[in-house]
Amino acid sequence: MENYMCETCGTQHAAGDQPPTHCAICEDDRQYIGWKGQRWTTLAALRQDHHNKVQPEEPGLTGIGTEPGFAIGQRALLVQTPEGNVLWDCISLLDAATIDAVRVLGGIRAIAISHPHYYASMVSWSQAFDAPIYLHAADRQWVMQPDPAIVFWEGEEQRLWGGLTLIRCGGHFPGGTVLHWTAGAEGRGALLTGDILMVASDRRYVSFMYSFPNYIPLSVAAVNRVVAAVEPWAFDRIYGAWWERVVAVDAKAAVARSAARYVAAIQSP
User: Fold this and answer.
1) pLDDT at 73
2) DSSP code string of 170-195
3) What is the mean pLDDT of residues 178-186?
4) Which of 8, 183, 192, 222 places its Cα 20 to 30 Å from the Cα of 163?
5) Pairing of strands 40-41, 51-58
6) Alpha-helical runs (H) found in the chain
């Protein structure tokens, strides 16, 4: 049996003799079915013509992304701490070269994911490194490959170790989560946000959406909730879900001015 993987969102599904009949994640209005219809691949097939780039982002933080791009195209982030490393968000491709590179960096003590679009092949990563997967319980229904390694945490915060804390923001998904890294940005603090807070092309700003590919905005109340969730935390840098989508400095002020701009635009007569 194979764990078939959706080519559009990159999510690996439970093992079966045939591909699933549909991908629930892509059928949801936050995502979309590929323009060529629902198509499937496997991890073995993906390894034939893709590889992962492993590249430092700053001391203690390493990006891992697939080339050429696959599915949504996000890159994962490996946060290194003396108490053990956390893989933030996930990507679909996992191969021997990536496993070796990550082990050189200290391996993975746990995996934590911002929202269902980046669940990818999380179970394969978990099995390779014997690591639990932290997901917010509010997004439980979107797990396409159940596994005993998945830890469904509840509430508004989940402290890990080494100055790492998961913060529930909601927004894009009810369980939408960001990771606060106290040691990031040379000790000024960093947020790893996926696209819960989406780093804009003008990297002085972030934005907030219910659906990015389908251009569905969030409500003012939802945006205010996201901002309120991160306001108590000190951070000077934001790492988004893609290479170079980084608010390098003054990130906390960037969130405030971004929210003000968003609310003013959506409430304009």
Assistant:
1) 97
2) -SSSTT-EEEEETTTTTTT-EEEEET
3) 98
4) 222
5) unpaired
6) 24-27, 43-49, 96-104, 122-129, 220-230, 251-267
Taking residues 92-121, what's their average pLDDT? 98
Percent of the chain clearing pLDDT 70 (strictly above)? 100
Average pLDDT of span 93-114: 98
- Residues 134-158 have pLDDT tens digits of 999 999 999 999 999 999 999 999 9
On whether the CB atoms of residues 218 and 208 are closer than 8 A, the answer is yes
Q: Which residue's entry shows tokens 């980084």?
A: 246
- Residue 241 near residue 231 (C-beta atoms within 8 A): no
Tell me, what's the pLDDT at 269?
76
Query: Rounded to an integer, what distance in angstroms lies between the CA atom of residue 28 and that of residue 144?
Result: 13
| Residue carrying the six token digits 């995502």 | 31
Pairing of strands 110-112, 86-88: parallel
∠ at Cα 24 (21, 26), nearest 5°? 105
Residue ranges per domain, the chain?
Answer: 5-267
What does CATH list as the number for 5-267?
A: 3.60.15.10
- Which 8-state DSSP code applies to residue 4? -
Residue that has been written with the tokens 């409500």 in this structure: 219
CA-wise closest residue to 64 among 5, 145, 128, 138: 128
Cβ–Cβ < 8 Å for 203, 248: yes
pLDDT in tens, 219-235: 999 999 999 999 999 99
CA 83-88-91 angle, to 5 degrees, is 135
Once rounded to an integer, what is the mean pLDDT over residues 23-51?
A: 97
